[in-house]
Amino acid sequence: MTTLATSPMAYTIFQNVQGTKKVQKNGTWGDLIRLMNHPPAYLSKQNCPLIKLATFGDERSPKGSFRTDKNMLTITGIEGDYDGEKVPPEEAVTRLKAVNVEAIVYTTPSHTPGKPRWRVLVPLSKPFPPDERERFVALLNGALGGILNVESFTQSQSFYYGRVSR
Q1: 52 by DSSP, 3-state: which?
Q2: Could you say which residues of the chain have pLDDT below 50?
Q3: How far is CA 3 from CA 6, 8, 32, in A?
Q4: pLDDT, tens only, 142-152
Q5: How many CB atoms lie within 10 A of CB 152?
Q6: Contacts by 151-156 with C-beta closer than 8 Å and gap 24+?
Q7: Which residue ranges make up each domain of the chain?
Q8: Burial, 7: exposed, middle or buried (Cβ in 10 Å; 0-12, 13-18, 19+)?
Q9: What is the overall mean pLDDT for the chain?
Q10: How far are the Cα atoms of 18, 24, 34, 58, 135 from residue 42, in angstroms, in the given order?
């Protein structure tokens, strides 16, 4: 029997913020959970890779980026960003569990207990066309109380992940 943890899932890792270097990963939600629970360490936020729960084609923008709305092929999950500095990540987890949403919530490099900042990754049951993304992000935002940053709705927006060595 296939469960969410063992279901195939593709996502893209961008090696730089410009989106000029991409690696498509084909694994499972469980693989992604393990990665996010034990992220690699980097010297600074700017050295961290970026993640997008989507697949991209091979067309580049005029500036050489793969990470464009036009080049996005499918979405396999959604991402949310919270920088409001009031709701701790544990509260986000509680809110999502209350409505049975499977998610990974992880803190950003600028997170502190007094000023919480975090991101959330949510898998979808199957790949969807990119134009469905905004609807799914709106549902996630509603489950969290309408607190996600507006960037969460940007179709091809990717987000840093990793641990910054201090």
Answers
A1: strand
A2: 1
A3: 5, 10, 14
A4: 999 999 999 99
A5: 23
A6: 151/81, 152/79, 152/80, 152/81, 155/69, 155/72, 155/130, 156/52, 156/54, 156/67, 156/68, 156/69, 156/71, 156/72, 156/130
A7: 4-164
A8: middle
A9: 95
A10: 18, 20, 18, 27, 34
